[in-house]
Amino acid sequence: MDLNFTEADQAFRQEVIEFLSVELPADISRRVHADLPVSKEDTEFWHAVLHKRGWLTYNWPKSFGGVGWSPVQQSIFEEECATAGAPRILPFGLKMLAPVLMAFGSKEQQEHWLPRMCDGTDWWCQGYSEPGSGSDLASLKTTAVKQGDHYVINGQKTWTTLGQYANMIFCLVRTNSDTKPQAGISFILVDLATPGIEMRPIRTLDGGQEVNEVFFTDVRVPASNLVGEENKGWTYAKYLLAHERNGIANVGISGQKLARLKRLSLTQKRNGKPLADDPLFAARLARLEIELRNLETTNLRVLDGFSKGAGPGPESSMLKIIGSELEQNFDDLTRRALGRHAQAHTPQVFEPGYNGPQVAPQDMANQSAAYFNKRKVSIYGGSNEIQKNIITKMILGL
Amino acid sequence: MDFQPTEERRMLADMIGKFIQNDYPLKERLTAGSSALGYCPTAYSTMAQLGLIGALFEEEVGGFGGSGFDIATVFTELGKGLVVEPLNDTALTTGYILAQTDQLDLVEQIVLGEKRVALGLIENGADYDWSAPETLARKTDAEWQLNGVKTSVKFAHGADALIVSAQTQSAPGISLFLIEAAATGLAEHPFQTVDGGNACEITLHNTPAQLLGVEGAAYPLIDAAAARATLALCAEALGLMERIKDMTIDYMRTRKQFGSELGKFQALQHRVAQMLLEIEQAKSAVINAANDLQAPADERNRAISAAKYSIGRIGCAVAEEAIQLHGGIGMTWEYDLGHFAKRLVMIDHEWGDQDFHLMRFAES
Fold first, then answer.
1. N or C: chain B end with fewer CB closer than 10 Å?
2. A246 pLDDT band (50/70/90 cuts)?
3. Residue A307 — pLDDT band, cuts 50, 70, 90?
4. Does the beta-carbon distance from A343 to B268 stay under 8 Å?
């Protein structure tokens, strides 16, 4: 057992830090640190910067153009990106669709779609959930009926994150209704410019707009856009869920939030003294720091195991539950640290020319909204309840 | 012992409930909450005309209630409607201070809804402690003048006057001052609050003010006013939780996944059960606090802190759990739950959060 970083790891960390200090614009990192939405342009810009360096596909296998980093290096990269305030790499194409295409897509599909998601030609979004099919995803009702060399899609998808920026969507659709639900689902790629598609925004409780509903009316999609075999889509979706592990624990982001909280606790006052000296607050902060230290090692143990061929088991679900709850707990404690000022909602302080009151410390001006927004992380991507079902199903074997 | 509300309070509660049902749609509340004032002045006046403010004051000062249970009754019902109009911030709390300092004409206007008076105690936004203001009051030949900055003064924008705390050079301790909204040297910087509503940062520069009560002796008065404000917040939170409970139970009964209602899954049943019993505990905490509002200050403050701690802890847990049990729909603006949850969590940030009150209880 050796938990020390090697000299090579440390040199790698330095390389990442230097890259970020040169390439990441201050106005972007400022918005990311303040938990404000990142614009389409800024995301595309950052993807291009990473792509130029060859790091956009840092978690891809070398055979598909990945960089071949060890799990420790991948973690270092994620940690330093979070610390620097880099926009997150959009997961829908690069981390979700790409592994499915690599495992189940045709050679033509791989050669066509993988380069396009790297060079920014395509912005992918996800069409899984439906109004009546959330946790029970397999009950989905959107149909795809084969007519000649096309599928005709009818139905509705929802919770489509950043669909307003996307030009492509990958969907789970029903191609067979006469069998058990899981056995009649297919995985298909749809161009959002196809006639019959309507995207409508859903406003979230914090006032933000990042999710959408997508309506499909007689949408004709080339049969060549089907991934793998018809009615095997559920297998592919499950494969993705079990293999989705990079960054799922959000260790880097939580680490950045810990550092931010520590800084904040020195400047904020409670009962006339620094917040850091308040024993109840100090205990809350200590608990989170301990959880994070534990998670860092859990995360590395899991990644190391995967790299040596273990799994897939319930590990991704475990990381998702612990990581999402920890991130929410950091947002919760940040809100508490702001005291009376947590109620202020003044994201406009980030706009140029703003001359109103500076209520909370500036990088905290959107924190209460961010706290409410982050309630989503224990709901999306398979709610934590579903993740617990997956864990016990695998372990109990009943 | 009798845990039944009196006939009068039952009628009061029913009347408020009907007003909310018939005349206070959530959509209009949300619009008002994000307007420049942060509330609807017409709705405020209507509530005053219905006697909702009068119920918060004793007969001697022009009201017809004023006990802890009267305050709890009104604010529990207002909570059920997610009412944003600042009956707590610009009537209950400041009206009590004014009544205790013989400003009865102004109290009468507050009771009738004709005047609104905001309260500025907090200066460092992270802190809940109001006991050591740095705002300085100086007596010139003719009048008092104030210099300082108050923050998170709720609903000061549009109020007719302000009460602020300050220290004076001639006496130790805190003093309270009444300032006209149009007074010279007063600048307000309004901002939105995340739960709908408005607050201001107030700067005072040689601002003329009127001393309320005895110089340097306002601590017990603020403490008593804070007890009323905190009780009202706890009661409001209870009303919010009652509605959140109803929404969650309704959703558990009707939403189907995996071929049956969510409420049939045992893992979720137990979580709903936990939520329900916690809310009952919160209700008892509010009853205790209402009962002890007239008790000697130490006893009163213990009950108030016990309630605010309980409400803070349980309120945040209920808000988060209800959203989680709803899933995605609970995250949307269109669905009512999120707005109730936002207000419920933000109540933990007014008049001391759960940690603040836990320590105050432990140290008392």
1. N
2. low
3. confident
4. no
Q: Which of A281, A340, A368 sits opposite B355 (nearest CB)?
A: A281
pTM of the predicted structure, to 2 decimals? 0.96
Of A213, A244, A315, A327, which residue is the catalytic one? A244
What per-residue confidence (pLDDT) applies to A358?
80
Among B30, B127, B316, B346, pick the best mutation site for testing chain A contact (most A Cβ within 10 A). Answer: B127
Confidence at residue A200, expressed as pLDDT on a 0 to 100 scale: 98
For each of the domains in chain A, give its residue range(s) and CATH number, in order of start: 7-89 (no CATH), 105-110+123-235 (2.40.110.10), 250-395 (1.20.140.10)
* Structural domains in chain B, sorted by start: 7-115 (1.10.540.10), 118-217 (2.40.110.10), 220-363 (1.20.140.10)
B-chain residues within 8 Å CB-CB of A275?
A: 126
Closest approach of chain B CAs to the CA of A194, in angstroms?
27
- B144, B209 in Cβ contact below 8 A? yes
What are the residue ranges in chain B where pLDDT is below 50?
A: none
CA-to-CA distance for B158 and B155, rounded, in angstroms?
Answer: 7
Closest Cα in chain B, distance from residue A340 (Å): 5
CA distance B8 to chain A (A): 35
347-386 in chain A: CB under 8 A from chain B? 356-357, 359-360, 368-369, 371-372, 375-376, 378-380, 383-385
pLDDT digits (tens, 9 = 90+) for A128-168: 999 999 999 999 999 999 999 999 999 999 999 999 999 99
